[in-house]
């Protein structure tokens, strides 16, 4: 962590990023567009990902991160021109309502059909952001989107990173798009990638693995993910869970509360900090050099804290019952 007064350019001496965690080089405009399979493509700026499917009747765009912004249009134009197909964007599908993945959606306003989960619609109505038009085609559990002879299967399997995060399966392209849970080759950022439902987040990769696919569009960083990437992520989360359980059982809270006296919250902080520190330290050590940025300790620390709290509050018990 940087200390107060440390300049932005004066970063700690982090471990080198494994080459395998990095994606292809970006072009002069700052994007890379690559074929996933056949007429399915993904676009990245190195940190965020969008995808699109070219069809004989038009182009379907999946997510529009503002950081890629107008480069989504450039990527579509580039590919459509190269393949002699229409560059007319006819549909935009939201993976979930978050602005960092949909905040450039309004760039496609016009004759576009907006598609998303019914909870995405509800949340976008709540948020009232003109940059993210509200989906008009919505669904509760499943929806098959058919455009120009192509087929995309959308499904909601419960809340995880967000309440509305959906699985986007391309059965004819051997591809699954599922955003903000697995970061290909990298650790999740703070609090399990800023997730709202911890048990849902922890269970989601197994649901993703149950689909048939060879390519995985995870929404972040520069490259596509593999089944091995999802497995490594699952192992990381399983290790955090096991370590949190061990630490919860091993650290005796009593001395912390005794020392804190009538400042009960000081006791809570000291106890939970001790549990988190004991649980997170071996994970950081194990995954440094395996997952990029594993040595940015605050990420594993906050993810461990969130899982440890979920073990208490969701799984239970939160503590012994008073006799
Ligand atoms: Zn998100």
Task: Provide structural commentary.
By secondary structure, the chain is of the alpha/beta class. It has helices spanning 70-83, 99-102, 118-127, 190-194, 198-210, 227-250, 254-260, 264-287, 297-315, and strands at 32-37, 40-44, 49-55, 58-62, 89-93, 113-117, 137-139, 142-147, 150-155, 167-170, 175-177, 215-217. The strands form two sheets. It has a seven-stranded mixed β-sheet. Strands 8-9-10-11-12 form a five-stranded mixed β-sheet, with no helix packed on it. Strand 5, helix 2 and strand 6 form a beta-alpha-beta unit. The termini are far apart. The model has no long low-confidence stretch (mean pLDDT 96). Zinc ion (ZN) binds at residues 96, 98, 101, 161-162, 180.
Which keywords apply here?
single chain; 323 residues; alpha/beta; seven-stranded mixed sheet; elongated; binds zinc ion
Cα-to-Cα separation, first versus last residue:
43 Å
What is the β-strand count?
12
- What's the arrangement of strands in the largest beta sheet? 1-2-3-4-5-6-7
The proportion of strand residues reads 15-25%
Bound molecules: zinc ion
The gross shape turns out to be: elongated
Global structural class:
alpha/beta
Mean pLDDT: 96
Which percent bin holds the helix content?
A: 25-40%
Main β sheet profile: 7 strands, mixed
What is Rg? 22 Å
**Helical segment count:** 9
Low-confidence parts: none
Oligomeric state of shown chains: single chain
How are the elements arranged and paired?
Layout: E1 32-37, E2 40-44, E3 49-55, E4 58-62, H1 70-83, E5 89-93, H2 99-102, E6 113-117, H3 118-127, E7 137-139, E8 142-147, E9 150-155, E10 167-170, E11 175-177, H4 190-194, H5 198-210, E12 215-217, H6 227-250, H7 254-260, H8 264-287, H9 297-315
Parallel strand pairs: 4-5, 5-6, 6-7, 11-12
Antiparallel strand pairs: 1-2, 2-3, 3-4, 8-9, 9-10, 10-11
Residues 96, 98, 101, 161-162, 180 line the site of zinc ion (ZN).
């Amino acid at each position: 962590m940087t200390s107060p007064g440390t300049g932005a350019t004066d970063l700690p001496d982090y471990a080198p990023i494994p080459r395998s965690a990095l994606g292809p080089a970006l072009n002069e405009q700052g994007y890379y567009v690559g074929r996933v399979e056949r007429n399915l493509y993904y676009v990245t700026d190195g940190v965020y990902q969008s995808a699109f499917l070219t069809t004989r009747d038009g182009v379907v765009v999946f997510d529009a991160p503002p950081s890629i912004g107008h480069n989504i249009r450039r990527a579509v134009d580039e590919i459509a021109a190269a393949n002699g197909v229409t560059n007319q964007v006819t549909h935009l599908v939201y993976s979930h309502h978050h602005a960092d993945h949909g905040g450039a959606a309004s760039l496609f306003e016009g004759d576009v059909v907006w598609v998303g989960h019914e909870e995405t619609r509800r949340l976008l109505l709540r948020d009232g952001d003109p940059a993210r038009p509200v989906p008009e085609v919505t669904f509760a559990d499943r929806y098959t989107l058919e455009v120009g002879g192509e087929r995309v299967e959308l499904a909601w399997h419960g809340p995880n990173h967000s309440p509305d995060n959906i699985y986007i399966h391309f059965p004819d392209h051997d591809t699954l798009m599922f955003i903000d849970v697995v970061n290909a080759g990298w650790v999740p950022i703070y609090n399990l990638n800023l997730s709202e439902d911890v048990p849902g987040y922890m269970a989601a990769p197994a649901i993703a693995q149950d689909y048939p696919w060879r390519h995985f569009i995870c929404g972040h960083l520069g490259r596509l993910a593999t089944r091995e990437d999802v497995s490594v992520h699952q192992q990381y989360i399983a290790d955090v869970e096991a370590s949190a359980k061990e630490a919860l059982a091993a650290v005796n809270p009593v001395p912390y509360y005794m020392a804190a006296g009538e400042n009960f919250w000081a006791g809570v902080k000291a106890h939970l900090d001790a549990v988190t520190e004991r649980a997170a330290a071996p994970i950081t050590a194990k995954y440094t050099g395996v997952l990029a940025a594993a040595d940015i300790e605050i990420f594993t620390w906050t993810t461990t804290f969130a899982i440890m709290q979920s073990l208490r509050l969701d799984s239970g018990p939160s503590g012994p019952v008073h006799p």
